[in-house]
Amino acid sequence: MKLPNNYGSITKLSGNRRRPFMVRKSLDGKQLVIGYFESKEKALQALADYNRQPDELPKSSITLTTLYKQWLPHHAPNLSKSGVASYENSYRHIQSIASIPIQNLTYDDFQGVLDAMQLSYASKKKVRSLINQLCKFAIKKDLMQRNFGDLVTIGKNSKVRPHKPFTRQQINKLWQLNTAESDGALILLYTGMRCGELLNLRRRDINLKSKYLTVTKSKTKAGEGRIIPIHKRIQPIIESRCSQYQDRLFPISYTNFAKHFSRITNGKHTTHDCRHTVATMLDSADANPNAVRAILGHKNGDITDKVYTHKGLRDLRRAINLLK
């Protein structure tokens, strides 16, 4: 059946998918994805619903992403800046199901997200909290009948394995890879940034002339706004990323980044091991303790001004260059 002009389109995607029928409509020259559906009949119904109310997505087409964008402005006023950042970080872990219409989501979808997380109990607990909040919001908007956040499990609060630093041989192997995946790992190993801080790094946060970057989003207040000199070994990587991307230097979800990281390190390290490696190496090189705390974004009673002087930047650069 041929659809009328400007009505929209239905495309069956390849592969073994639960919801293979994608519904789209062209608006102002751009393709708007209305949703993904199990059958062509449901896809046609969603497209018909949208054309009847073009200013409002039909309930059957509202995705988890749309719901999150509606929920956050309502919830954010009650949160601290770090609280908002925590939810934003948790949201990155559910992006694998973010494009699925709310009404099509199942318990298995949410539980699958948590099962795939190779992180601590505390991190999983935060993601479960976000799922709980989004489900409550969806129920209020008559998009969902039950709160899956009350049903999903995150296991026991077992002891997470201690962080272990990379060896020189392992770091050298990353340099030999020369891939997009190894780029991220090497930047972490020569800046001490947290993974979330790296994924939030934008082109505007990089000062190529003075060779430093600014961490604008961090899980802690002490970590925000700090300056990290760009080590000479990763400068070509940073410059290449800046030429390729105008916004985020690593436009990838936390989950996918962690998967790539695990693959290139043969599952022997977590992203946080990079931060632990930087701290260990700087300590072994007798770096200035205040400079190390400033680079890592740790609380320090001796450093209160986040806008460092030129002398301060030189001190930080002297410390970061101790990394080999």
Automatic annotation (TrEMBL):
Q: Which keywords does UniProt give here?
A: DNA integration, DNA recombination, DNA-binding
Q: Does the keyword DNA-binding apply?
A: yes
Q: Which domain of life is it from?
A: Bacteria
All copies of domain Core-binding (CB), residue ranges: 62-139
Q: Which GO terms describe its biological process?
A: DNA integration; DNA recombination
Q: Which InterPro entries match?
A: CB, DNA_brk_join_enz, Integrase-like_cat_sf, Integrase_catalytic, Integrase_recombinase_N, Phage_Integrase
Q: What's the name of the protein?
A: Site-specific tyrosine recombinase XerC
Q: Which residues form the Tyr recombinase domain?
A: 161-321
Q: Does the keyword Nucleus apply?
A: no
Q: Per its record, what are the GO molecular function terms?
A: DNA binding
State the family named in the UniProt similarity comment for this chain: Belongs to the 'phage' integrase family.
